[in-house]
Amino acid sequence: MMNSAALNELVERTVEGMGYEFVEFERLARGLVRVTIDTTAEGGISLEDCEAVSEQLSHLFTVESVDYERLEVSSPGVERPLKRARDWSRFAGELAHVELFAPLKAEGFPEAGRRKLEGRIVSIEGESGAETITFDFFEVDVARTPGAAHLRSRSKKAAAPAEPVRVSFALADVDRANLIAVLNFKG
């Protein structure tokens, strides 16, 4: 039986060999295998793209005797996870939510530091395996649901935007991160 790291690498090579960007591979309860793919092409991932990758991975899993019940192939959605250095580089300038393994201490933070940050990705630099992310932390004020958009539009007082706090942290210190979707609920 193939170990998880080897299977992850095999799925990544297969997905990227088909011309898609590999985002994530997960083995979940009840035999569910979830593979997330993306593309830099205009229009994003289509249902046909997911079907093609699903069919290819089904054949691969049969040949490699991978034990699974269901295979789900999907796009990452609007709140795309940020997993690799190339993701951080590609989405520099975008809003993101970041959760670190340990609190980050910086001027402007509470004494104990902050483990959860929202703000804008500035850049990523450094050698592979030792990348450092530069990030502008601030209170992100975007509507995340239609109800929140309605409440924000009725609010009379608008808080003045606070100055961002520029911080740096190692990519290895990131527990999880994703883009923050800026959605227009007004149509």
Automatic annotation (TrEMBL):
Keyword line: Cytoplasm, Ribosome biogenesis
Major location (coarse): cytoplasm
Residue ranges annotated for the Ribosome maturation factor RimP N-terminal domain, each copy included: 10-79
Record GO cellular component, one term: cytosol
CDD domains reported for this sequence: YlxS_C
Keyword Cytoplasm attached: yes
Subcellular location field: Cytoplasm
GO BP annotations, alphabetical order: ribosomal small subunit assembly; translation
Similarity section: Belongs to the RimP family.
Name of this chain's protein: Ribosome maturation factor RimP
Organism: Sutterella megalosphaeroides
Record lineage: Bacteria, Pseudomonadati, Pseudomonadota, Betaproteobacteria, Burkholderiales
Gene coding for it: rimP
